[in-house]
Amino acid sequence: MSAATPGERAPRLVVLGLGYVGLQLAAAAAASLTVTGVDIDAGIVARLRRADSHIDDIPSETLAPLLADRSLVVTDDPSAAAHADVVAICVPTPLDGRGDPDTGSITRAAHDLAPRLSPGTLVILESTSYPGTTEDLVLPILETSGLRAGTDFHLAFSSERIDPGNRRFDVRNTPKVVGGLTERCADLAVAFYRRITPEVVRASGIREAEMSKLLENTYRYVNVALVNELAQVCERLSVDVWEVIRCAGTKPFGFQTFTPGPGVGGHCIPVDPHYLGWLTRQATDRDFHMITAARQINDGMPAYVADRVATALAGAGVDVDGARVLLLGVTYKPDVADDRESPAYALASALTRRGAHLYYHDPYLTSWAPADATVHRAENLEEEAAKADITVLLQPHTAYESLALPTAARLVFDTHGALTGANVVRL
Ligand SMILES: NC(=O)c1ccc[n+]([C@@H]2O[C@H](COP(=O)([O-])OP(=O)(O)OC[C@H]3O[C@@H](n4cnc5c(N)ncnc54)[C@H](O)[C@@H]3O)[C@@H](O)[C@H]2O)c1
Known about the structure:
Layout: E1 12-16, H1 20-29, E2 34-38, H2 42-49, H3 60-68, E3 72-75, E4 86-89, H4 104-113, E5 122-125, H5 133-142, E6 154-157, E7 176-180, H6 183-194, E8 200-202, H7 206-237, H8 241-248, H9 272-283, H10 289-315, E9 324-328, H11 343-353, E10 357-361, E11 375-377, H12 381-387, E12 390-393, H13 405-408, E13 412-414, E14 424-426
Parallel strand pairs: 1-2, 1-4, 2-3, 4-5, 5-6, 7-8, 9-10, 9-12, 10-11, 12-13, 13-14
Antiparallel strand pairs: 6-7
Bound molecules: nicotinamide-adenine-dinucleotide.
Residues 16-22, 38-41, 44, 90-93, 105, 108-109, 112, 127-128, 160-162, 164, 267-268 line the site of nicotinamide-adenine-dinucleotide.
């Protein structure tokens, strides 16, 4: 790919994977480039072709004009990658059944791309993964094309940093970290991203860029674990953890506020640190102790919340066995429609094992069905809050702000520490 110069045609970008990350990138780039989005899920492709977005942060109204003037074309055919100037791989990187990295989608995307790779193409991995993924996994597959990385085609890594539901920062105003296989690869990747976002940060190498993403998410994971453990200790010591955090948060340097909650969810924070933990175990003779400890604490939060809910009920003279419990906000974070890895699943299981009858309400989900718990949908929130023995606020969606929960509900367990009242118990 040649760097942009005035008068030159804009590079053709192909994005592999049109989920939260890929669709954001494709939509942002389509404002100035010709973009083809490829997804193996024919259902997603069919929806997108109708300009029916499946991603909250990209409204259908944003997609419609891009599709109409064909600055964005969507297909399930990987042959679209032939003759691309830039290919961005934005496929999922979950954990497998053992809790280890599952890089199968990256492998498949690279295999789909290799026979279609053209000389001069810049390939950028955006999926979060462990250091070495771009060079040790993607590179050899792409070289089955007969082209050599760093000479015949270019290779780089650049992590995506989108924060679903964040109204302030998106792909266009969040600095982009880039690491290239060679200086030329990095130059081209930096030039490419400068078309989309003003601040591009050049890493000294691909592995440093890959590791920086794992540091960002591991930092969040261990700090959330720290305050989750602090909440448990404060409760035993009769200290108000929310006041502790409010006070500590006034320090203008050297402290960043994290708040406790019912557990970590989504498919980044509870997942990415284990790519680092796994690599550490594979490549060194040691464990990454902070990640192991944080996992133990964070994974234990739903069971801890279930215990506290049972205790709150007992304080009101109600046995959790047979109690009517309303769960409010079962997605993984406020004001998003994504329930992947939501701690509400583990909480529903734990309360079901204790004999509670569960109801849920979430304005962002039309249905919610944990595998090992029976949950009934609360159609009328105020009526159900009045009927439930306890209402558990999990995600404080904006829609709940107008609900005077301490008045509407008999008893409230607030996992976000925002509510007050004689019938409110805070995490
Ligand atoms: N969602 C986030 O907030 C976020 C933020 C930063 C980084 N990331 C990382 O970005 C990557 C993508 O995450 P996401 O949230 O967009 O995932 P996602 O599940 O929302 O979307 C991935 C898409 O890729 C498609 N896909 C899978 N294999 C494919 C292939 N071989 N070719 C073409 N399409 C394929 C899937 O059908 C799916 O539509 C992950 O590594 C994730 O960790 C995610």
